[in-house]
Amino acid sequence: MSDTIYDIAIIGGGPAGLSAALTGRIRNKKILLFEHLGFSEKLQKGHTINNYLGIPAVSGQELMKQFADHVLSYSPELVKEKVVNIFPGDGMFTILTSKSTYEAKAVIIATGVVATGLFEGEKDLLGRGVSYCATCDGMLYRDQDVAVISYTREGEHEAEYLAEICRQVYYLPQYKSEFSAMRSNLAIKTVRPRALSNEANAISLATDKENINVGGVFILRQSDPVENLLPGIELEGEVIKVNRDMATSIPGVFAAGDCTGKPWQISRATGEGLVAVLSAISYLDSQAKAAGA
Amino acid sequence: MSDTIYDIAIIGGGPAGLSAALTGRIRNKKILLFEHLGFSEKLQKGHTINNYLGIPAVSGQELMKQFADHVLSYSPELVKEKVVNIFPGDGMFTILTSKSTYEAKAVIIATGVVATGLFEGEKDLLGRGVSYCATCDGMLYRDQDVAVISYTREGEHEAEYLAEICRQVYYLPQYKSEFSAMRSNLAIKTVRPRALSNEANAISLATDKENINVGGVFILRQSDPVENLLPGIELEGEVIKVNRDMATSIPGVFAAGDCTGKPWQISRATGEGLVAVLSAISYLDSQAKAAGA
C-alpha cells in the first residue's frame, strides 16, 4: 500500500484519462494514473486518424505515443495495474488493484468503451462462482477446476498463476492468441462462451462447442462493467451518467470519454477529460474550504 | 445571395467551429464556415499553450495556424463575413451577414465567449437607436450623428462607412487603437461607455468623461449577444443552453465551445465541435428520412 494520499486518481490512460492527467499536473495536483494496457489498445489499432484537430493524417499508434509522451513529461504517478474496485470513504477513496491499494481524494473514471453483452447468468453469479480478478479471488478455487475467459493477452499471466494453485485451468482466449501453455494442467480452448449457470454448486459454462463444468469462472475484459468497479454509481443505459461538468452521481467521482457514451471519438474524450479534471479540482477546493471552515 | 444550399453552417472559426468543420467535411457534408476575424483572435493572443494533448508547448498563433491549415485542406466554404442574424424557416435556415444571405439545413453556433455586461439600457434600445451592424442599419441614421462603440479593429471600417452617410461619427475604440480617421466628421473619443438612455427621441450615451448625444449608437463586439443572433434560443444564464449532444432549444441548431459556457479551454471546444457536427449530421439524416417517408 502506498503511503501517499493523491489528489486525483485517474482510472484509464486513453485520450480522456491522459488529457485529465495533463491538465491536472499543469495545475500542480498529485495525480495517480492507472493504465495497465500500454495506453489505449483500441486507439493504437486505428489506421489513420484524420479528425484530431491540428494533427492531420496520423496513425493511431503514433498519436497515442504523442499523447503519452506529452503527459509523461509532466510526471504523473503512473501505475501499471488494473483497478479492481473503488471504495468511497470519508472524503477519501480507496482504490484496490490486483496488487495493492491506493488513496485519493477524487476519482476520474476513464475506462473506455463499456463492456456490453454480459453473458447470460454472469451478473447473478458474480461473487458466487464468477470473478473478474484472478489475483484477488484465485485462492477461493484452490485445487478446483476453473475457466478463464479472457479478452486480453494479459489474461495469459493470470491463467498461469491460476494453474499454480488450481487443479485444472481451461483458458478461453477471445482474441487472436498464440498462447501455448507450459503447464500440463492449463488447457487452451478456442470456443465462444454463451451462458453461465449454477448447477449443483458448480458453474456450468455453455459454449458454441461444449459445456464446461468448473468451480469458478474468471472473466477478464479490458474494462469491467462499471457498476462492478464502483457499486451504486448511476448509469444511463449501459454508460456512466454524467452532467455537463462530467460529475457522476457519487460526489468526488467524475467520468470522461467512451465510458460516458457515444460518439467514441478522440477529441470528445480529450475535451471531457479536461472538463472532468477541472471539475475534480473545483471539488477538491470546495472540500478543503469546508474542512477549513 | 449564394444559390447553394449547404448542409451545415458553422458560425465561428475558433477551435470549436474548426473541429466541427473538419469532421463535417470528412463526413462529406457541404460545410459553410463563417469566420470574419482571422480565426480566434483570443487564442492567437495566448502565449504558450501546454494542455492541448499531443502538441506540447505551442504558441496560440502557431496552434491556430495548425488548426486552420488542417481544416482548410478539406475545403469547407469559408466566408469572411460577420453573421448578423439567423432565421429559422421550413427545414432551412437563412443566414444574414453584413453583405449577403446564405442557406443551410442545420446550424452550429461557435461564436466564442459570450458578450457579457451589456450596457445599461442597451437591451431595451436595441432596434430603437441601438444597432449591432453598420452595414445593415447605417442608412437609418443618414445625416444624423452616431456613435460607434467598437471592441475590434474591424469597427474602424464600419465607422468610415458611417462617416460617408452620417453627419458626425464618434468612434469609441474599446481596444488599443492606433486609428486616425481621414474624414473631418469622424472623431475618435477614448472614453469608456457606461449607459444608454433615450431622451427626446435621441440616444444619450453616458461615459466616464462626458455625455454624448446622438441619433444612433452602433455597438460592435467580436460576437453579439446570442439572443440577438437567433431570437428565442434558450439560454442558461448568459450562455447557450445545450444538452450532452450539443443540441440547443431550436431543432437543427447546435452550439459548441465557449458560447456554451466554461471552462474556456481548447480541447473542450474541439470536443464539443466534434459532437455538435455529428449531432447535426444525425439531425440531417432524420430530416431526410422524414421527407422520404
TrEMBL record, chains A, B:
GO terms assigned for molecular function: oxidoreductase activity
Keywords of this entry: Flavoprotein, Oxidoreductase
Highest taxon, organism lineage: Bacteria
Residues that span the membrane, as ranges: none
InterPro entries cross-referenced by the UniProt entry: FAD/NAD-bd_sf, FAD/NAD-binding_dom, Ferredoxin-NADP_redctase_2
Residue intervals of the FAD/NAD(P)-binding domain: 6-273
Protein name (Swiss-Prot/TrEMBL): Thioredoxin-disulfide reductase
Source organism per UniProt: Anaerosporomusa subterranea
